[in-house]
């Protein structure tokens, strides 16, 4: 079940979303925003999981590389 929420976005974000909808990447604004939020949640969970995994391995070099955006 979906719920409706109200958010405020910068005009540039809305323009960009509208361009993506116009190009056919998304059916509408809602789909674009749902996709963006799903990607944010997925990436945050993945990043936190990977960081916890690195901490468990106690690999200082791997953690340092991960935090600086390099593959380990």
Topology overview:
Elements lengths: L10 H12 L6 H29 L2 H8 L5
Residues in helices, as a percent range: 55-70%
Number of strands: 0
Beta-strand residue percentage: under 5%
Low-confidence stretches: none
What structural class do helix, strand and pairing data support? mainly alpha
Structure annotation, total helices: 3
Main beta sheet: none
Large-scale geometry: elongated
Radius of gyration: 18 Å
- When the domains are counted, the total is 1
Report on this structure.
This protein has 72 residues and is mostly helical. The protein has one domain. It is built from 3 helices and no strands. It has helices spanning 11-22, 29-57, 60-67. The mean pLDDT is 85.
Relevant terms:
72 residues, mainly alpha
In short:
With about 70 residues, this protein is mainly α. The chain contains three helices and no strands.
